[in-house]
Design brief:
single chain; about 240 residues; mainly alpha; 11 helices; 2 strands
Length: about 240
């Protein structure tokens, strides 16, 4: 009993230890020196990441440029990797990534958090831009092949087939018959190698309007070249 009450006994040792009177607020392990916090769980990490994403998305939609920079820093690599895997070209992938975030910034009011998280929305835009890039690449290939064929027929001593010259004259005539808006859209698409999205951005027309004009113009040219003047006068 005397040992228990002496200043050097177990009672004195307990008195000098940190008091633990409540359960730690942060999960941890109680040691002789106090509470050692335990690493955050995966669930906690996911919750924190989701909260941060929602905060950035809200600032992005409000038009906060700092939030936009953070959004680009956080998900730019994701968009770039998607484009690079699909296109197989680093430069084209960089262009697609820039186009994706530029389109997202311009259309940020179209994002609604209830429909899904911001990175999913960005991936949807990226996939459309990747599809546009593939389409533009196909058109460039076709134009290059056509140009090579034309160069070979223009070589000294090689006469151009009469039907080719006739086709070129007919197409030029049909373009002149189109309304100015339709004519400009087809020229931008076939001579400037622009996608419908790029034409909409350059002309300021809605994307749906650009597609409708292009579709009607092509249908009109096909009817005119197939059926002759009667079809053109009926379509006017």
């Amino acid at each position: 009993m005397t040992a228990l009450l002496s200043p050097t006994g177990p009672t004195a040792m307990v008195a000098t230890m940190p008091a633990v009177t409540t359960i730690p607020a942060v999960p941890g392990v109680v040691t002789m020196s106090g509470v050692v916090p335990m690493p955050a769980t995966r669930a906690e990490d996911r919750a924190s990441d989701r909260a941060e994403s929602e905060r950035l998305a809200a600032g992005f939609v409000r038009g906060d440029e700092e939030s936009f920079a953070l959004v680009y820093r956080r998900w730019g690599a994701l968009v770039y990797s998607l484009a690079a895997r699909s296109l197989g070209d680093a430069r084209e992938a960089e262009d697609v990534a820039q186009q994706t975030f530029l389109a997202a910034w311009r259309g940020r009011h179209g994002y609604h958090a209830l429909r899904g998280p911001l990175p999913g929305w960005l991936v949807g835009i990226a996939r459309r831009k990747i599809a546009d890039a593939h389409a533009a690449r196909s058109r460039r290939t076709e134009l290059a092949a056509a140009h090579a064929a034309r160069e070979s027929t223009d070589a000294p001593g090689a006469a151009e087939p009469p039907e080719a010259a006739l086709d070129r004259v007919l197409v030029s005539q049909e373009l002149r018959k189109l309304p100015p808006v339709q004519r400009d859209i087809l020229r931008l698409a076939f001579f400037d190698d622009l996608t419908h999205v790029q034409i909409a951005e350059r002309t300021g027309l809605p994307l749906g309007t650009v597609k409708s004009h292009a579709r009607r113009a092509m249908a009109r040219i096909r009817r005119s070249m197939t059926d002759g003047p009667a079809a053109d006068s009926s379509a006017a």
